[in-house]
Amino acid sequence: MAIDTLVIGSGAREHALLWKLKQSPRVGKLYVAPGNGGTALIAENVPIGVMEFDKLVKFAQEKRIGLVVPGPDDAFVGGIVDVFQAHGLRVWGPSREAAQIEGSKAFSKQLMQDAKIPTAEFKIFTDSAAALAYVRTRGAPIVVKASGLALGKGVYVCRTTEEAERAIQEIMVEHVHKAAGDEVVIEEYLEGPEISVHALSGGVTHVLFPPSQDHKRVEDGDQGKNTGGMGTIVPVPWVTPAMMADIENRIVIPTFEEFNKRGVRFQGLLFPGLLLTKDGPKALEYNARFGDPECQVYMRLLKTDLLDLLEASIDGTLDAIRDSIGWHRGFAANIVIASGGYPDAYKTGFPIRGIAEAEQDEHVVVFQAGTKMDNGQLVTAGGRVLSVSAIGSTLKQALDRAYAAADKIHFEGMHYRQDIGAKSLT
Ligand SMILES: Nc1ncnc2c1ncn2[C@@H]1O[C@H](COP(=O)(O)OP(=O)(O)O)[C@@H](O)[C@H]1O
Ligand SMILES: [Mg+2]
Asked: CATH number of the domain at 194-424, out of 3.40.50.2300, 2.40.37.10, 2.40.440.10, 3.30.470.20?
């Protein structure tokens, strides 16, 4: 029987999940709460917010939803999986307890320490005076992090002691990240290329996805402010199978083992962010869900039915399907198109043109994020607006197609990086 499915979220990540689920012969009706202008074209948008758990449960019960797939971090950290499970509904992803690995950087650093996972040296603070004294003795460069979820804005990579002092002031005294800054992690500054690793877990065994790479800074050459992510490639051509095995052995497996030791089942997606330093891979943090924009490129390259993967993750049967999981040959890339001003303040409501033209290339899919329909016109409604994805047999081909498509799109004030994947081309 077809499984009616509810995806929760409104980003390009959720659009990509829906796009992939839509291709499954076993998926029935597709709903998304709250969705965006693009998801409305392939699923039914339901006007319920990501954190309105009671309303979401009621909707799922009324529609006899067979599978719930939440996307965003705050939903998992807030315990959405526990709430759906308590009502006997089938839901994918980590419990509130497991999602602490993303919801609290203090928790995750402690876990890394317990499991002897390579990571930046660190100390945890709840008192600003002690934090200030620490950065003054350690000096710069140094990294100051609000422990909780801070919309991707809670990490301050500080080049000087003064910058670090200002970060502590903002987080701990002015409370700009509210309770997310009640605890602060101060850690050693690390150097090296950054990659994203995704491991789908069924609680006991896991499956590792190919390595991907996001581009966090808003401007070309990794300049400017940190963002939610400006573009991704998969796979990263210079990350060898031996490097992935090393990452799996030193970071992924010990993390799952530590959860097991603590009697916590981690079901869902573990996404450690890591730096490849000269001393080997080091974990920066964990996310407990698909990355956005990583998800978009994974969905373009994944051959296997996504429903099969999600169900095997829920049921803890990944081992049984491991050998049948396949990826298309070649590469996928995506370019995030953002509103003028993003990641700072930006205006919305500008008409978006050119998506159909961009998608005339059969290798291109435009996933939507901050968009909505306004009297029959698609307009901007958020910071990251579109994720223009393309596949190709080489990385260059995937990037060229994605950029050619992005160039056909227009809205007032739009900007996107011109150098996604560039460092991996040589
Ligand atoms: N110890 C570190 N050394 C150097 N750069 C870091 C360090 N920790 C974080 N960063 C940079 O800051 C970004 C955000 O940090 P991260 O811990 O991933 O937090 P979040 O994604 O929750 O904002 C990382 O993607 C990385 O580029
Ligand atoms: Mg991160």
From this structure: 3.30.470.20
Ligand nearest to the CA of 216: 1
Whole-angstrom distance, CA of residue 38 vs CA of residue 368 = 5
Nearest ligand by distance to the CA of 158: 1
Output the CA 204–ligand 1 centroid distance in Å: 28
Asked whether the predicted pLDDT for residue 152 surpasses 90, the reply is no
Look at ligand 1, atom 19, and give the residue with the nearest C-alpha.
Answer: 155
pLDDT at residue 193, as a whole number: 95
Q: What CATH number is given for 127-182 in this structure?
A: 3.30.1490.20
Share of the chain above pLDDT 90, in %: 98
Nearest bound ligand to CA 275?
1
Q: Is 310 in the pocket of ligand 1 (CB under 6 A)?
A: no
Does the Cβ of 144 fall within 6 Å of ligand 1? Answer: no
pLDDT band at 258 (very low <50, low <70, confident <90, very high): very high
Q: What is the mean pLDDT of the chain?
A: 97
Ion ligand 2: protein residues whose beta carbon lies under 5 Å:
273
Ligand 1 pocket, 157 CB below 6 A?
yes
| Confidence tier at 26 by pLDDT (50, 70, 90) | very high
Average pLDDT value for residue range 9-28: 98
Q: How far is CA 223 from the centre of its chain?
A: 21
